[in-house]
UniProtKB/TrEMBL annotation:
It is a multi-pass membrane protein. Pfam families: BPD_transp_2. CDD domains: TM_PBP1_transp_AraH_like. This is Simple sugar transport system permease protein. GO terms for cellular component: plasma membrane. It comes from the Bacteria. The chain crosses the membrane at residues 27-47, 59-78, 117-142, 148-165, 186-206, 237-259, 271-302, 314-333.
């Protein structure tokens, strides 16, 4: 007996999705690796010692904050959503932790007291991020309003509260024991870079190897099909934005350890770059697919471009303009990919 058309379509869509999650977009990561090697080789021809151990270590200090923020953006993108509040969430979390440390740790505080206050600050920051993620996810899941509008509203609300409470001033006074995390290395590798790698691996395993990750991909590919597959899409959406905000907590830790202060204005220019890195790394802007590995390669490419232009003496504003052009180009190529598949050999795009 033949399967009903709807059930057959659902099973076929699920099979295609699982295949895509396991294998990825054919040649996508290879293309990113080739582009990265090409850029490093190209800049090395004109900039002495560009491809050196010192440059690599500099990259490892610069990437963690942007990398964690990009991971926080990637998770909602896979479900076909967006989280415009990641920077605001990170800054407010960092401000809360800095305020607790600044207020409760005095010059007379002993090591035990300082450690207890730091733990209290970390717990408070974690709870704040989870609360923001829970509220944001619930609003998106249960109101049906597009994530862009909800997260734009939460971004404005969080930024407004942060600026009002701090009067736009930065908070410093981070304990030396905590701030040293930003410069600590293990076998020459910065500790904050190792944190990025650990979080990226965990996020990758969650999105590719768990039922939650499969459900997120199904929601991004076809939310109606996900509902017919007995997936609680509302609960999954709440979970996605909670995970996104939880990653912001780790970004706040890196921010405090790197800058030794917190402000509502920090990293505001990173919002565009997180979307660019995700799309360049192979995340489907319409939802349904994306890998942390591709994201890390895209971040490395963007960092190489930024460092190369800076050493050429070009303006940072020009770099931002080029990043915007790359985002438009990549989005256009992804949109035109179904048509290109019929024009180019199958070895570039896989079977037609």
């Amino acid at each position: 007996m033949a399967e009903p058309p709807l059930l057959y379509n659902l099973n076929s869509s699920l099979t295609d999705l699982m295949t895509r999650m396991r294998t990825g977009i054919p040649g996508a990561h290879t293309g990113l690796v080739v582009l990265l090697v090409f850029l490093v080789a190209g800049f090395s021809l004109f900039i002495p010692n560009f491809a050196s151990l010192g440059t690599l270590q500099s990259f490892m200090y610069q990437l963690p904050l942007l990398g964690l923020l990009s991971l926080a953006m990637m998770a909602p993108l896979i479900t076909g959503g967006l989280n415009l509040a990641i920077i605001a969430t990170t800054n407010q979390c960092a401000l809360l932790m800095a305020f607790i440390m600044q207020s409760l740790i005095t010059p007379d505080s002993g090591t035990g007291t300082a450690l207890a206050v730091i733990v209290l600050a970390l717990v408070a920051g974690l709870v704040l991020c989870l609360l923001i993620g829970l509220i944001t996810g619930a609003l998106i899941a249960y109101t049906g309003v597009h994530p862009i509008l909800i997260t734009l509203g939460t971004k404005s609300l969080i930024d407004g509260i942060s600026i009002y409470l701090t009067r736009g001033m930065a908070l410093s006074g981070i304990p030396d024991g905590f701030s040293r995390i930003g410069t600590t290395t293990i076998v020459g590798v910065p500790l904050i870079f190792l944190l990025l790698i650990v979080v990226a691996v965990i996020v990758s395993l969650i999105l590719r190897r768990t039922a939650f990750g499969v459900a997120c991909a199904m929601i991004g590919s076809n939310i109606e099909a996900a509902r017919y597959s007995a997936i609680d899409t509302r609960r999954m959406l709440v979970g996605v934005y909670v995970m996104s905000s939880l990653i912001c907590f780790f970004a706040a830790l890196v921010m405090l350890a790197t800058f030794n202060s917190a402000s509502a204005d920090y990293a505001q220019s990173y919002l565009l770059v997180t979307i660019l890195a995700a799309v360049l790394g192979g995340v489907d802007p319409f939802g349904g697919f994306g890998t942390a590995g591709g994201l890390m390669l895209a971040l490395a490419i963007l960092q190489v471009i930024s460092s190369g232009f800076n050493q050429f003496g070009l303006s940072n504003y020009l770099t931002v303009a080029i990043w915007g052009g790359i985002l438009i180009f990549v989005a256009a190529v992804q949109t035109a990919r179904p048509y290109l598949m019929w024009l180019l050999p199958t070895r570039f795009f896989g079977p037609k």
